[in-house]
Amino acid sequence: MQLHISPSLRHVTVFPGKGVREFIKVKVGSRRLSYRMLFYSLLFFTFLLRFIFVMTAVDSIDGETKCSTIGCLGKKIGPKILGRRIDSYNVPEVIYQVLEEPISKDELQGRNDIPQTLDEFMAEIKNSNLDARTFAIKLREMVTLLEQRTRTAKIQEYLYRHVASSSIPKQLHCLALRLANEHSNNAAARLQLPSAELVPALVDNSYFHFVLASDNVLAASVVATSLVKNSLRPHKVVLHIITDRKTYYPMQAWFSLHPLSPAIIEVKALHHFDWFTKGKVPVLEAMEKDQKVRSQFRGGSSAIVANATEKPRVIAAKLQALSPKYNSVMNHIRIHLPELFPSLNKIVFLDDDIVVQTDLSPLWEIDMNGKVNGAVETCRGEDKFVMSKKLKSYLNFSHPLISNNFDPNECAWAYGMNIFDLEAWRKTNISATYHHWVEQNLKSDLSLWQLGTLPPGLIAFHGHVQVIDPFWHMLGLGYQENTTYVDAESAGVIHFNGRAKPWLDIAFPELRPLWSKYINFSDKFIKGCHIRAS
Q1: Which residues does 209 contact at the CB level (< 8 Å), separation at least 6?
Q2: Would the pLDDT of 82 be above 60?
Q3: Residue 348 to residue 468: CA distance in whole angstroms
Q4: Considering the entire predicted model, what is its pTM?
Protein backbone atom coordinates (compact mmCIF):
# COMPACT_ATOMS: atom_id res chain seq x y z
CA MET A 1 0.00 0.00 0.00
CA GLN A 2 1.29 3.49 -0.88
CA LEU A 3 0.46 6.77 0.82
CA HIS A 4 0.91 10.02 -1.12
CA ILE A 5 0.47 13.51 0.39
CA SER A 6 0.58 16.52 -1.89
CA PRO A 7 3.01 19.35 -1.02
CA SER A 8 0.13 21.68 -0.34
CA LEU A 9 -1.49 19.09 1.99
CA ARG A 10 -4.73 19.59 0.08
CA HIS A 11 -4.89 16.00 -1.17
CA VAL A 12 -4.08 12.66 0.45
CA THR A 13 -4.16 9.58 -1.81
CA VAL A 14 -4.04 5.89 -0.72
CA PHE A 15 -3.00 3.29 -3.34
CA PRO A 16 -3.65 -0.43 -2.48
CA GLY A 17 -0.50 -2.57 -2.51
CA LYS A 18 -1.90 -4.96 -5.19
CA GLY A 19 -1.87 -2.25 -7.86
CA VAL A 20 -5.60 -1.58 -8.00
CA ARG A 21 -6.04 2.03 -8.96
CA GLU A 22 -8.77 2.68 -6.44
CA PHE A 23 -8.03 5.51 -4.11
CA ILE A 24 -9.51 7.60 -1.41
CA LYS A 25 -9.15 11.37 -1.61
CA VAL A 26 -9.48 13.56 1.37
CA LYS A 27 -9.64 17.22 0.55
CA VAL A 28 -7.82 19.24 3.17
CA GLY A 29 -7.97 22.98 3.76
CA SER A 30 -4.99 25.31 3.94
CA ARG A 31 -2.15 24.78 6.40
CA ARG A 32 -3.41 27.66 8.47
CA LEU A 33 -6.65 25.83 9.30
CA SER A 34 -4.98 23.29 11.57
CA TYR A 35 -8.21 22.17 13.27
CA ARG A 36 -9.81 21.37 9.95
CA MET A 37 -6.70 19.50 8.91
CA LEU A 38 -6.80 17.53 12.16
CA PHE A 39 -10.44 16.60 11.52
CA TYR A 40 -9.73 15.31 8.02
CA SER A 41 -6.70 13.44 9.29
CA LEU A 42 -8.88 11.58 11.75
CA LEU A 43 -11.34 10.86 8.99
CA PHE A 44 -8.55 9.42 6.88
CA PHE A 45 -7.34 7.12 9.65
CA THR A 46 -10.91 5.87 10.12
CA PHE A 47 -10.98 4.81 6.48
CA LEU A 48 -7.55 3.29 6.92
CA LEU A 49 -8.68 1.15 9.88
CA ARG A 50 -11.69 -0.06 7.90
CA PHE A 51 -9.33 -1.15 5.15
CA ILE A 52 -7.22 -3.05 7.69
CA PHE A 53 -10.28 -4.93 8.94
CA VAL A 54 -11.23 -5.93 5.39
CA MET A 55 -7.76 -7.34 4.84
CA THR A 56 -8.04 -9.24 8.13
CA ALA A 57 -11.35 -10.80 7.11
CA VAL A 58 -9.83 -11.95 3.81
CA ASP A 59 -6.96 -13.60 5.67
CA SER A 60 -9.40 -15.36 8.00
CA ILE A 61 -11.51 -16.71 5.15
CA ASP A 62 -8.46 -18.00 3.30
CA GLY A 63 -7.48 -19.93 6.43
CA GLU A 64 -3.79 -19.18 5.87
CA THR A 65 -1.30 -19.64 8.65
CA LYS A 66 0.61 -16.64 7.33
CA CYS A 67 -0.97 -13.29 6.75
CA SER A 68 -0.09 -9.93 5.26
CA THR A 69 1.54 -7.31 7.41
CA ILE A 70 -1.52 -5.11 7.52
CA GLY A 71 -3.77 -8.17 8.04
CA CYS A 72 -1.72 -9.31 11.02
CA LEU A 73 -1.61 -5.76 12.31
CA GLY A 74 -5.38 -5.59 12.15
CA LYS A 75 -5.71 -8.89 13.96
CA LYS A 76 -3.37 -7.79 16.70
CA ILE A 77 -4.24 -4.19 17.37
CA GLY A 78 -7.71 -3.85 15.78
CA PRO A 79 -9.63 -5.58 18.59
CA LYS A 80 -7.65 -3.69 21.22
CA ILE A 81 -8.43 -0.34 19.64
CA LEU A 82 -12.12 -0.92 18.96
CA GLY A 83 -12.81 -3.41 21.77
CA ARG A 84 -14.34 -6.09 19.55
CA ARG A 85 -13.43 -9.37 17.87
CA ILE A 86 -13.28 -9.91 14.14
CA ASP A 87 -15.15 -13.13 13.33
CA SER A 88 -15.61 -14.64 9.93
CA TYR A 89 -19.09 -16.07 9.35
CA ASN A 90 -18.19 -17.67 6.04
CA VAL A 91 -17.31 -21.39 6.02
CA PRO A 92 -13.94 -22.11 4.36
CA GLU A 93 -14.31 -23.78 0.98
CA VAL A 94 -12.07 -26.67 2.07
CA ILE A 95 -14.73 -27.79 4.57
CA TYR A 96 -17.33 -28.10 1.82
CA GLN A 97 -14.86 -30.06 -0.30
CA VAL A 98 -14.12 -32.56 2.47
CA LEU A 99 -17.76 -33.02 3.48
CA GLU A 100 -18.77 -33.68 -0.13
CA GLU A 101 -16.17 -36.41 -0.55
CA PRO A 102 -17.80 -39.89 -0.42
CA ILE A 103 -16.87 -42.21 2.41
CA SER A 104 -17.49 -45.94 2.42
CA LYS A 105 -18.75 -47.99 5.32
CA ASP A 106 -15.59 -50.10 5.27
CA GLU A 107 -13.40 -47.07 6.00
CA LEU A 108 -14.97 -46.70 9.43
CA GLN A 109 -15.01 -50.36 10.47
CA GLY A 110 -12.67 -51.19 13.30
CA ARG A 111 -11.85 -47.55 13.96
CA ASN A 112 -11.67 -46.61 17.65
CA ASP A 113 -10.36 -43.08 17.19
CA ILE A 114 -13.69 -41.64 15.99
CA PRO A 115 -15.58 -39.59 18.62
CA GLN A 116 -18.81 -41.29 19.72
CA THR A 117 -20.56 -38.19 21.03
CA LEU A 118 -20.58 -34.44 20.45
CA ASP A 119 -18.88 -33.90 23.82
CA GLU A 120 -16.00 -36.17 22.82
CA PHE A 121 -15.70 -34.35 19.51
CA MET A 122 -15.60 -30.90 21.17
CA ALA A 123 -13.04 -32.06 23.73
CA GLU A 124 -10.79 -33.39 20.97
CA ILE A 125 -10.84 -30.26 18.83
CA LYS A 126 -10.28 -28.02 21.86
CA ASN A 127 -7.18 -29.98 22.83
CA SER A 128 -5.80 -30.02 19.28
CA ASN A 129 -4.68 -27.24 17.01
CA LEU A 130 -6.55 -28.44 13.91
CA ASP A 131 -6.65 -26.81 10.52
CA ALA A 132 -9.92 -26.55 8.61
CA ARG A 133 -9.36 -29.70 6.55
CA THR A 134 -8.59 -31.94 9.53
CA PHE A 135 -11.59 -30.52 11.36
CA ALA A 136 -13.88 -31.33 8.42
CA ILE A 137 -12.49 -34.88 8.11
CA LYS A 138 -13.12 -35.68 11.77
CA LEU A 139 -16.59 -34.13 11.62
CA ARG A 140 -17.47 -36.17 8.50
CA GLU A 141 -16.28 -39.41 10.10
CA MET A 142 -18.23 -38.86 13.29
CA VAL A 143 -21.47 -37.88 11.53
CA THR A 144 -21.22 -40.75 9.04
CA LEU A 145 -20.64 -43.29 11.81
CA LEU A 146 -23.58 -42.01 13.86
CA GLU A 147 -25.75 -41.92 10.74
CA GLN A 148 -24.94 -45.56 9.98
CA ARG A 149 -25.76 -46.61 13.53
CA THR A 150 -29.01 -44.65 13.51
CA ARG A 151 -30.03 -46.22 10.21
CA THR A 152 -29.28 -49.72 11.50
CA ALA A 153 -31.24 -49.13 14.70
CA LYS A 154 -34.19 -47.68 12.79
CA ILE A 155 -34.32 -50.62 10.38
CA GLN A 156 -34.14 -53.08 13.28
CA GLU A 157 -37.04 -51.27 14.91
CA TYR A 158 -39.10 -51.53 11.71
CA LEU A 159 -38.24 -55.22 11.38
CA TYR A 160 -39.23 -56.00 14.98
CA ARG A 161 -42.48 -54.08 14.57
CA HIS A 162 -43.17 -55.95 11.34
CA VAL A 163 -42.64 -59.29 13.08
CA ALA A 164 -44.74 -58.24 16.08
CA SER A 165 -47.62 -56.93 13.96
CA SER A 166 -47.61 -59.89 11.58
CA SER A 167 -47.64 -62.54 14.29
CA ILE A 168 -50.65 -63.79 16.23
CA PRO A 169 -50.19 -63.12 19.96
CA LYS A 170 -50.35 -66.31 21.99
CA GLN A 171 -53.25 -64.85 24.00
CA LEU A 172 -55.40 -64.49 20.87
CA HIS A 173 -54.36 -67.94 19.67
CA CYS A 174 -55.33 -69.32 23.07
CA LEU A 175 -58.72 -67.58 22.92
CA ALA A 176 -59.52 -69.05 19.50
CA LEU A 177 -58.56 -72.56 20.61
CA ARG A 178 -60.59 -72.39 23.83
CA LEU A 179 -63.64 -71.10 22.00
CA ALA A 180 -63.30 -73.78 19.31
CA ASN A 181 -63.18 -76.40 22.05
CA GLU A 182 -66.20 -74.83 23.72
CA HIS A 183 -68.06 -74.92 20.40
CA SER A 184 -67.54 -78.68 20.11
CA ASN A 185 -68.43 -79.47 23.75
CA ASN A 186 -71.14 -76.97 24.66
CA ALA A 187 -74.44 -76.76 22.79
CA ALA A 188 -74.94 -73.22 24.09
CA ALA A 189 -71.90 -72.20 22.06
CA ARG A 190 -73.48 -73.47 18.85
CA LEU A 191 -76.60 -71.32 18.76
CA GLN A 192 -77.97 -70.13 15.45
CA LEU A 193 -77.04 -66.46 15.06
CA PRO A 194 -79.45 -64.83 14.92
CA SER A 195 -82.33 -66.90 16.22
CA ALA A 196 -85.00 -67.98 13.73
CA GLU A 197 -87.53 -65.30 14.71
CA LEU A 198 -84.98 -62.54 14.09
CA VAL A 199 -83.81 -63.74 10.66
CA PRO A 200 -86.24 -61.45 8.74
CA ALA A 201 -84.48 -58.44 10.26
CA LEU A 202 -81.34 -59.37 8.32
CA VAL A 203 -82.91 -58.08 5.09
CA ASP A 204 -85.15 -55.40 6.61
CA ASN A 205 -83.98 -51.95 5.44
CA SER A 206 -85.72 -50.23 8.34
CA TYR A 207 -82.85 -51.44 10.58
CA PHE A 208 -79.37 -49.98 10.82
CA HIS A 209 -77.14 -52.55 9.13
CA PHE A 210 -73.43 -52.71 9.96
CA VAL A 211 -70.91 -55.07 8.37
CA LEU A 212 -67.70 -56.25 10.01
CA ALA A 213 -65.19 -58.56 8.27
CA SER A 214 -62.69 -60.06 10.70
CA ASP A 215 -60.79 -63.20 11.67
CA ASN A 216 -59.94 -61.76 15.12
CA VAL A 217 -62.50 -62.74 17.78
CA LEU A 218 -61.29 -60.30 20.44
CA ALA A 219 -61.17 -57.35 18.02
CA ALA A 220 -64.64 -58.19 16.67
CA SER A 221 -66.03 -58.35 20.21
CA VAL A 222 -64.74 -54.83 20.98
CA VAL A 223 -66.27 -53.41 17.79
CA ALA A 224 -69.61 -55.09 18.49
CA THR A 225 -69.69 -54.14 22.17
CA SER A 226 -68.74 -50.51 21.57
CA LEU A 227 -71.29 -50.25 18.74
CA VAL A 228 -74.20 -51.58 20.80
CA LYS A 229 -73.34 -49.88 24.09
CA ASN A 230 -73.16 -46.45 22.45
CA SER A 231 -76.29 -46.89 20.35
CA LEU A 232 -79.40 -44.92 21.34
CA ARG A 233 -81.58 -47.52 19.62
CA PRO A 234 -79.76 -50.85 20.03
CA HIS A 235 -82.93 -52.79 19.15
CA LYS A 236 -82.61 -51.38 15.60
CA VAL A 237 -78.96 -52.42 15.19
CA VAL A 238 -78.05 -55.40 12.99
CA LEU A 239 -74.39 -56.38 12.88
CA HIS A 240 -73.33 -58.77 10.10
CA ILE A 241 -70.00 -60.41 11.00
CA ILE A 242 -68.16 -62.10 8.12
CA THR A 243 -65.23 -64.34 8.93
CA ASP A 244 -63.17 -67.15 7.38
CA ARG A 245 -63.56 -70.89 7.76
CA LYS A 246 -61.02 -71.38 10.55
CA THR A 247 -62.43 -68.57 12.72
CA TYR A 248 -66.12 -69.35 12.20
CA TYR A 249 -66.54 -71.75 15.14
CA PRO A 250 -64.66 -69.57 17.68
CA MET A 251 -66.58 -66.49 16.46
CA GLN A 252 -69.93 -68.25 16.69
CA ALA A 253 -69.08 -69.57 20.15
CA TRP A 254 -68.13 -66.13 21.45
CA PHE A 255 -71.29 -64.36 20.32
CA SER A 256 -73.48 -67.31 21.33
CA LEU A 257 -72.11 -67.10 24.87
CA HIS A 258 -71.89 -63.27 24.91
CA PRO A 259 -75.14 -61.98 23.34
CA LEU A 260 -75.58 -58.24 22.86
CA SER A 261 -79.36 -58.11 23.04
CA PRO A 262 -81.46 -56.35 21.95
CA ALA A 263 -79.07 -55.85 19.01
CA ILE A 264 -79.08 -58.57 16.35
CA ILE A 265 -75.79 -60.32 15.56
CA GLU A 266 -75.23 -62.50 12.51
CA VAL A 267 -72.07 -64.59 12.18
CA LYS A 268 -71.39 -66.02 8.74
CA ALA A 269 -68.31 -67.54 7.09
CA LEU A 270 -67.31 -66.91 3.51
CA HIS A 271 -67.93 -70.51 2.53
CA HIS A 272 -71.58 -70.02 3.52
CA PHE A 273 -72.07 -67.74 0.50
CA ASP A 274 -72.90 -69.93 -2.51
CA TRP A 275 -71.54 -67.50 -5.08
CA PHE A 276 -68.18 -67.11 -3.28
CA THR A 277 -66.12 -69.61 -5.24
CA LYS A 278 -62.83 -69.20 -7.05
CA GLY A 279 -64.45 -69.22 -10.46
CA LYS A 280 -66.89 -66.43 -9.62
CA VAL A 281 -64.75 -64.11 -7.50
CA PRO A 282 -61.85 -62.51 -9.41
CA VAL A 283 -60.25 -61.22 -6.22
CA LEU A 284 -59.38 -64.74 -5.05
CA GLU A 285 -57.41 -65.47 -8.20
CA ALA A 286 -55.80 -62.04 -8.00
CA MET A 287 -54.78 -62.70 -4.39
CA GLU A 288 -53.02 -65.94 -5.35
CA LYS A 289 -51.10 -64.15 -8.11
CA ASP A 290 -50.36 -61.26 -5.78
CA GLN A 291 -48.81 -63.58 -3.22
CA LYS A 292 -46.56 -65.20 -5.83
CA VAL A 293 -45.46 -61.85 -7.25
CA ARG A 294 -44.67 -60.46 -3.80
CA SER A 295 -42.56 -63.49 -2.85
CA GLN A 296 -40.50 -63.15 -6.04
CA PHE A 297 -40.42 -59.37 -6.26
CA ARG A 298 -39.68 -58.61 -2.62
CA GLY A 299 -37.38 -61.46 -1.69
CA GLY A 300 -38.75 -61.56 1.83
CA SER A 301 -38.02 -59.41 4.86
CA SER A 302 -34.36 -60.50 5.01
CA ALA A 303 -33.66 -59.18 1.52
CA ILE A 304 -35.46 -55.93 2.26
CA VAL A 305 -33.53 -55.25 5.45
CA ALA A 306 -30.21 -56.17 3.79
CA ASN A 307 -30.60 -53.37 1.22
CA ALA A 308 -27.98 -50.81 2.22
CA THR A 309 -28.97 -48.09 -0.26
CA GLU A 310 -32.64 -47.42 0.49
CA LYS A 311 -33.89 -45.09 3.17
CA PRO A 312 -35.40 -46.57 6.36
CA ARG A 313 -38.87 -45.23 5.48
CA VAL A 314 -38.78 -47.02 2.13
CA ILE A 315 -37.73 -50.22 3.86
CA ALA A 316 -40.56 -49.78 6.37
CA ALA A 317 -43.08 -49.42 3.54
CA LYS A 318 -41.80 -52.59 1.86
CA LEU A 319 -41.95 -54.53 5.14
CA GLN A 320 -45.50 -53.31 5.63
CA ALA A 321 -46.37 -54.59 2.15
CA LEU A 322 -45.42 -58.08 3.32
CA SER A 323 -47.98 -57.99 6.13
CA PRO A 324 -50.45 -60.89 5.78
CA LYS A 325 -53.43 -58.56 6.21
CA TYR A 326 -52.68 -56.89 2.87
CA ASN A 327 -53.19 -60.23 1.15
CA SER A 328 -56.15 -61.28 3.30
CA VAL A 329 -59.55 -61.94 1.82
CA MET A 330 -61.00 -60.08 4.82
CA ASN A 331 -59.40 -56.96 3.43
CA HIS A 332 -60.69 -57.46 -0.11
CA ILE A 333 -64.21 -58.56 0.80
CA ARG A 334 -65.66 -55.05 0.99
CA ILE A 335 -65.52 -54.70 -2.80
CA HIS A 336 -68.19 -57.46 -3.02
CA LEU A 337 -70.70 -55.94 -0.59
CA PRO A 338 -73.49 -55.57 -3.22
CA GLU A 339 -73.26 -59.31 -3.95
CA LEU A 340 -72.97 -60.27 -0.28
CA PHE A 341 -76.09 -58.32 0.69
CA PRO A 342 -78.34 -58.16 -2.39
CA SER A 343 -81.44 -57.15 -0.37
CA LEU A 344 -79.92 -54.22 1.52
CA ASN A 345 -79.91 -50.60 0.32
CA LYS A 346 -77.39 -49.01 2.66
CA ILE A 347 -74.82 -50.34 5.12
CA VAL A 348 -71.97 -49.00 7.28
CA PHE A 349 -68.78 -51.02 6.92
CA LEU A 350 -66.48 -51.20 9.96
CA ASP A 351 -62.88 -52.42 10.23
CA ASP A 352 -62.00 -54.60 13.22
CA ASP A 353 -59.41 -52.14 14.57
CA ILE A 354 -61.93 -49.38 15.30
CA VAL A 355 -63.85 -48.41 18.42
CA VAL A 356 -67.31 -46.83 18.26
CA GLN A 357 -67.77 -44.04 20.81
CA THR A 358 -71.12 -42.54 19.82
CA ASP A 359 -74.49 -43.42 18.33
CA LEU A 360 -74.02 -44.08 14.59
CA SER A 361 -77.67 -43.97 13.52
CA PRO A 362 -77.30 -40.34 12.23
CA LEU A 363 -75.11 -41.74 9.45
CA TRP A 364 -78.29 -42.93 7.73
CA GLU A 365 -79.52 -39.34 7.59
CA ILE A 366 -76.51 -38.07 5.61
CA ASP A 367 -77.40 -37.05 2.07
CA MET A 368 -75.10 -39.05 -0.21
CA ASN A 369 -75.99 -36.91 -3.27
CA GLY A 370 -76.07 -40.00 -5.46
CA LYS A 371 -72.55 -41.05 -4.38
CA VAL A 372 -71.65 -44.59 -3.35
CA ASN A 373 -69.03 -44.21 -0.62
CA GLY A 374 -69.37 -41.86 2.35
CA ALA A 375 -65.86 -41.37 3.77
CA VAL A 376 -63.66 -38.95 5.69
CA GLU A 377 -60.99 -37.15 3.64
CA THR A 378 -57.41 -37.52 4.81
CA CYS A 379 -55.77 -34.38 3.39
CA ARG A 380 -57.29 -31.77 5.71
CA GLY A 381 -57.12 -31.49 9.48
CA GLU A 382 -55.16 -30.22 12.45
CA ASP A 383 -52.91 -33.29 12.58
CA LYS A 384 -50.62 -32.66 9.61
CA PHE A 385 -48.94 -36.04 10.03
CA VAL A 386 -52.11 -38.11 9.75
CA MET A 387 -54.32 -35.81 7.70
CA SER A 388 -51.93 -35.05 4.86
CA LYS A 389 -52.64 -37.92 2.49
CA LYS A 390 -53.25 -37.31 -1.20
CA LEU A 391 -53.37 -39.71 -4.13
CA LYS A 392 -49.61 -39.33 -4.56
CA SER A 393 -49.21 -40.78 -1.05
CA TYR A 394 -50.52 -44.15 -2.27
CA LEU A 395 -50.11 -44.33 -6.05
CA ASN A 396 -46.91 -44.31 -8.11
CA PHE A 397 -47.23 -41.26 -10.35
CA SER A 398 -43.98 -42.03 -12.13
CA HIS A 399 -45.91 -44.77 -13.93
CA PRO A 400 -47.77 -43.48 -17.00
CA LEU A 401 -50.88 -45.57 -16.25
CA ILE A 402 -51.30 -43.57 -13.04
CA SER A 403 -50.04 -40.15 -14.14
CA ASN A 404 -52.21 -40.13 -17.27
CA ASN A 405 -55.42 -40.85 -15.38
CA PHE A 406 -55.25 -39.19 -11.96
CA ASP A 407 -54.27 -35.96 -10.21
CA PRO A 408 -51.47 -36.49 -7.66
CA ASN A 409 -52.72 -33.65 -5.45
CA GLU A 410 -56.29 -34.91 -5.25
CA CYS A 411 -57.39 -35.59 -1.69
CA ALA A 412 -57.43 -39.21 -0.50
CA TRP A 413 -60.02 -40.75 1.83
CA ALA A 414 -59.99 -43.52 4.41
CA TYR A 415 -61.30 -47.03 4.83
CA GLY A 416 -62.35 -48.10 8.32
CA MET A 417 -65.76 -46.49 8.76
CA ASN A 418 -67.61 -46.06 5.48
CA ILE A 419 -71.22 -45.55 4.46
CA PHE A 420 -72.00 -47.55 1.33
CA ASP A 421 -75.11 -46.86 -0.71
CA LEU A 422 -75.54 -50.31 -2.24
CA GLU A 423 -78.40 -49.18 -4.49
CA ALA A 424 -76.19 -46.56 -6.13
CA TRP A 425 -73.26 -49.00 -6.22
CA ARG A 426 -75.18 -51.56 -8.26
CA LYS A 427 -75.64 -48.95 -10.99
CA THR A 428 -71.88 -48.51 -11.43
CA ASN A 429 -68.90 -50.59 -12.59
CA ILE A 430 -66.91 -50.00 -9.38
CA SER A 431 -66.21 -53.68 -8.67
CA ALA A 432 -65.08 -54.36 -12.25
CA THR A 433 -62.82 -51.29 -12.16
CA TYR A 434 -61.29 -52.51 -8.90
CA HIS A 435 -60.42 -55.93 -10.34
CA HIS A 436 -59.10 -54.38 -13.54
CA TRP A 437 -56.60 -52.21 -11.67
CA VAL A 438 -55.57 -55.01 -9.31
CA GLU A 439 -54.75 -57.07 -12.42
CA GLN A 440 -52.81 -54.16 -13.98
CA ASN A 441 -50.74 -53.81 -10.80
CA LEU A 442 -49.88 -57.52 -10.85
CA LYS A 443 -48.86 -57.34 -14.51
CA SER A 444 -46.55 -54.40 -13.73
CA ASP A 445 -44.81 -56.23 -10.83
CA LEU A 446 -46.57 -54.09 -8.21
CA SER A 447 -45.22 -50.88 -9.73
CA LEU A 448 -48.55 -49.00 -9.56
CA TRP A 449 -48.77 -49.29 -5.77
CA GLN A 450 -47.36 -51.50 -3.04
CA LEU A 451 -49.79 -51.59 -0.15
CA GLY A 452 -53.16 -53.12 0.51
CA THR A 453 -56.66 -52.51 -0.77
CA LEU A 454 -56.88 -48.75 -0.32
CA PRO A 455 -54.96 -47.80 -3.52
CA PRO A 456 -57.24 -49.82 -5.84
CA GLY A 457 -60.17 -48.58 -3.77
CA LEU A 458 -59.12 -44.98 -4.36
CA ILE A 459 -59.15 -45.72 -8.08
CA ALA A 460 -62.36 -47.77 -8.19
CA PHE A 461 -64.38 -45.27 -6.14
CA HIS A 462 -62.92 -42.26 -7.95
CA GLY A 463 -65.77 -39.82 -8.50
CA HIS A 464 -68.13 -41.82 -6.26
CA VAL A 465 -67.13 -40.48 -2.83
CA GLN A 466 -69.26 -38.27 -0.60
CA VAL A 467 -67.12 -36.48 2.00
CA ILE A 468 -68.42 -36.71 5.58
CA ASP A 469 -67.49 -34.87 8.78
CA PRO A 470 -64.11 -35.94 10.30
CA PHE A 471 -65.88 -36.40 13.64
CA TRP A 472 -67.11 -39.75 12.38
CA HIS A 473 -63.66 -41.20 11.83
CA MET A 474 -60.43 -40.30 13.64
CA LEU A 475 -57.41 -42.05 12.15
CA GLY A 476 -53.80 -42.78 12.99
CA LEU A 477 -53.99 -44.22 16.50
CA GLY A 478 -51.97 -47.25 15.42
CA TYR A 479 -48.91 -45.54 13.94
CA GLN A 480 -48.38 -42.32 15.88
CA GLU A 481 -48.92 -41.16 19.44
CA ASN A 482 -49.39 -37.44 18.83
CA THR A 483 -53.13 -37.78 19.38
CA THR A 484 -54.01 -37.22 23.03
CA TYR A 485 -56.45 -39.34 25.00
CA VAL A 486 -58.81 -36.38 25.37
CA ASP A 487 -58.84 -35.63 21.63
CA ALA A 488 -59.40 -39.28 20.74
CA GLU A 489 -62.17 -39.60 23.29
CA SER A 490 -64.09 -36.77 21.60
CA ALA A 491 -64.32 -38.54 18.21
CA GLY A 492 -67.30 -40.60 17.09
CA VAL A 493 -65.16 -43.49 15.82
CA ILE A 494 -61.44 -43.98 16.47
CA HIS A 495 -59.29 -46.10 14.20
CA PHE A 496 -56.11 -47.89 15.28
CA ASN A 497 -54.85 -48.15 11.72
CA GLY A 498 -51.14 -48.95 11.59
CA ARG A 499 -48.92 -51.57 13.16
CA ALA A 500 -49.56 -50.71 16.83
CA LYS A 501 -52.88 -52.51 17.14
CA PRO A 502 -54.44 -52.21 20.60
CA TRP A 503 -54.34 -56.00 21.15
CA LEU A 504 -50.56 -56.10 20.60
CA ASP A 505 -47.78 -55.42 23.09
CA ILE A 506 -46.48 -52.65 20.80
CA ALA A 507 -49.72 -50.64 21.22
CA PHE A 508 -49.39 -47.10 22.57
CA PRO A 509 -50.16 -47.46 26.30
CA GLU A 510 -51.85 -44.06 26.67
CA LEU A 511 -54.36 -44.85 23.89
CA ARG A 512 -54.99 -48.53 24.56
CA PRO A 513 -57.54 -47.90 27.38
CA LEU A 514 -59.93 -46.44 24.79
CA TRP A 515 -60.08 -49.94 23.30
CA SER A 516 -59.61 -52.18 26.35
CA LYS A 517 -62.47 -50.62 28.35
CA TYR A 518 -64.88 -52.63 26.19
CA ILE A 519 -63.37 -55.95 27.33
CA ASN A 520 -64.63 -57.76 30.41
CA PHE A 521 -61.37 -58.95 31.93
CA SER A 522 -63.22 -61.08 34.48
CA ASP A 523 -64.63 -63.28 31.70
CA LYS A 524 -63.42 -66.88 32.06
CA PHE A 525 -62.09 -67.07 28.50
CA ILE A 526 -60.27 -63.73 28.82
CA LYS A 527 -58.77 -64.65 32.20
CA GLY A 528 -57.91 -68.16 31.07
CA CYS A 529 -55.82 -66.81 28.21
CA HIS A 530 -54.13 -64.15 30.38
CA ILE A 531 -55.47 -61.25 28.36
CA ARG A 532 -54.89 -58.15 30.46
CA ALA A 533 -55.70 -54.47 30.25
CA SER A 534 -52.04 -53.48 29.92
Answers
A1: 238, 240, 341, 344, 346, 347, 348
A2: no
A3: 13
A4: 0.73
